[in-house]
Each structure stands twice: as C-alpha cells, then as structure tokens.
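Give me structure tokens for this 163-residue protein.
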Amino acid sequence: MDFEIEEMKSSDWDQVSLIYKMGIETDNATFEKSIPSWDSWVLNHLPGCNIVARSGNKILGWAALSPTSKRKVYSGVMEVSVYVSEECWGKGIGLALLKKLIDLSEEKGIWTLQAGIFPENEVSINLHKKCGFRIVGTRERIGKRDGIWRDVVLMERRSKIVD
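Here you go.
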C-alpha cells in the first residue's frame, strides 16, 4: 500500500477523528469516550509531532505526542498515541507512523516516550516492542471504562541519541 507520512493539518481532522472514534469503539484503545475539537487537540499535543499516513486524500492512520506533565523536569517525556483505520490494520502503517514519530521526537530533544496500553491490545504492545519500547510494568485497576476497572501496561522507550 502506497502512502506518505505528513504533518497533521486542521483539514485532516474529520478523517483523523473518525479513526480515533473507531479506536474508542474497540473498547481496547483508550479510556476516552469522546472526540475533542481540533482546537482542544492542538492545545494538548506537541507541535510538529502530530502526523498522518495519507494515500491521496485519504487518511489511513495517525500518531501524536502529548506531554506527560507540565513540570519542566519532565519536558522531554511524551506519551505516544498511534491509531490506524481498521481497514488498514496489518499493512505496516502503524509501524511506519511510530518510527517517524520516534525520529521527530528525537529531533525535538525528547528523551523518553511512553505508552499506556490495555493488556488486551496485544497488537499495539507488539508494535511498540518492534520500535524499541519495553514493558515497565502493569498499572492495575488504574481507571474505569464503562464502570469496569481496567489495567494498563506501561511501556517506555529511552532515546539512545538524546542526552
């Protein structure tokens, strides 16, 4: 499948939000239950590290970084999000997005990337492992989704080039 990875634009938001909605509906991608507005999204994500996989005018997937804390000491620690349209699963789009996001993060001086993944989402755990993430541990009963306590596998990747 041919696609390009590009910076996410506001004009991509309708398609990006549909892919996000698909992820929400799996019940294994996020605790979130609703899609934010574009303006809210921009405020909560690292500029230059919001990307899409595009084939022509179609968005196939997206990835983004968001700060883990407002404290300066954690300014080089970001949380990773990667979502791929269901029709494109298994085609290498998630891997390409995550690799590009890692490169962009290192260009911006980010030293640690982390991901919180539901243990049932084995595909995402394996994707992150392919990109050098390691499992730090499991945060047990960290939050509720639809009234049910859920665990989250905490994964991290420490840059080998950013000090």
